[in-house]
Amino acid sequence: MINNSIKETVMPKSKEMSLLGNSKKVILALQHLIAMFGATVLVPILTGLDPSIALFSAGIGTLIFHACTKGKVPAFLGSSFAFIPVILSVKELYNGDLAYAQGGMVVAGLIYVCISFMIKKIGMDRIENYLAPQVVGPMIIVIGMNMIPTAFGMAKESLLVAAITLGTALLINFKGKGFIKQLSILIAVMVGYIVSYKMGLVNTQAIKEASIIAMPNFRLPKFDLGAIAMIAPVVLAVFMEHLGDVTTNGQVVGKNFIEDPGLNRTLLGDGLATTVAALIGGPANTTYGENTGVLAITKNYDPSILRLSAVFAVCLGFVAKIGVSLSTIPNAVMGGISLMLFSMISLIGMKTIKNQEVKFNWKNIVVMGVILILGLGGEYLSKKLGFTVGITINESVKISGLSFAALVGIILNAVLNRK
Fold first, then answer.
1. Which pTM was predicted?
2. Which of 77, 82, 208, 230 lies at a C-alpha separation of 20 to 30 Å from 142?
């Protein structure tokens, strides 16, 4: 009798607590979804890939990452900005066929997988000898700086709208607090969109005609050596970004994820996520600092919340009206927000040099200077000299710009800093 009465009184309370716990998880998962949403869909909007597939592949990629890292790392994987310049270059070279960019990203993801196996085999120290911060930092700077003219070209369609969008993002980023600050990109795009709508710059007819639920336009990649040669070297630039993201995530949580589950596992998860995303038509994935910020705000480090957010992202990929709505965002809005985002990418490169405490001796200055000159001024030098500054294998396979700068930088650093 006593046992039965205990069960009757205790079990309902346990169920109530369980429901409250599940509701809290859902809310926290939605916060992570909102935090990653703006940046994740911005990459396909800028490159021409399908935003719905980007959401779907971000969710699948996050689940893959958690499987590879034994469910220990509370990270979310979204669209990588580092690949934007090379995707656009391949798109232009292959007459707008993004399938070739997909093929390059598939190979880039597989290179990540190979690097993870190498790290497990030979250790992190030897890899760092070649991917030193004085090499990777300037490469990241080049990635961001090379995209700023593109962003400005988009912004010129309406400088007023671009200025309002950019100003809103900067205001929230500098004055905002807590979770609102994490939403600066999304809020700025919404403000820019509303202003554009009031100015008659938005055509909503396509949104009305779109169905609510629809299958994303999945497509297979195409492989060409030229596209692969242009995209694959970006892995060298995003490697240190990955290392920094995982380290920062661990500092917030209070654990060393580089040791447990291990850098090789986090790289494996990132590489497989990128490969799977590119196979179905999505952009390359990367670990997101936005979601690490949410962890710091909420103080809840439960990795299962990130997995729940990933499931939400997968479901959101099948809501057709959202994908169509995103396609109606004016170029001026995206140009305004992109000016800040691409500048932030370059800032990450500068922070890499500072945080890794690069010594400014003549050897490192030469390495960094050569990468910046070749990466930022390669096209200008080619015009002045009358020939391509890079390596030309054949008409379709050329290693120039960032790829050539990265290759020269790695070799030059290995020669000058032989120890």
1. 0.69
2. 77
Whole-number pLDDT of residue 392: 66
Domain count, the chain: 2
**pLDDT at residue 240, rounded to an integer:** 67
Co-location of 160 and 67 in the same domain: yes
Closest CA to 239 of 347, 349, 146, 341: 349
The span from the CA of 292 to the CA of 32, in Å, is 9
- Residues 57, 336 contacting (CB under 8 angstroms): no
* Average pLDDT per 10 consecutive residues for the chain, totaling 419 residues: 43 46 77 78 87 94 96 93 86 91 95 91 71 82 82 89 92 79 77 92 82 86 90 78 77 82 92 96 88 75 92 88 76 85 78 84 92 84 73 59 81 84
Q: 3-state DSSP call for residue 286?
A: strand
Structural tokens at position 355: 């945080």
Residues 6+ apart with CB under 8 A from 298: 28, 31
- In terms of Cα–Cα distance, which of 115, 154, 99, 143 is closest to 281? 99
CA nearest neighbour of 269 among 399, 75, 419, 12? 75
Residue 355 has, within 13 A of its CA and on its CB side, a CA count of 15
Check if the beta carbon of residue 197 is closer than 8 Å to that of residue 33: no
∠294-297-299 over CA atoms, to 5°? 100
pLDDT of residue 25: 81
In contact, 93 and 298? CB cutoff 8 Å: no
The two three-digit tokens of residue 99, written as one number? 């399938």
In whole angstroms, what is the distance from residue 212 CA to residue 50 CA?
Answer: 16
Domain boundary among 347, 381, 404: 347
Distance between alpha carbon 348 and the CA centroid of its chain, in Å? 13
Whether 159 contacts 333, CB under 8 Å = no
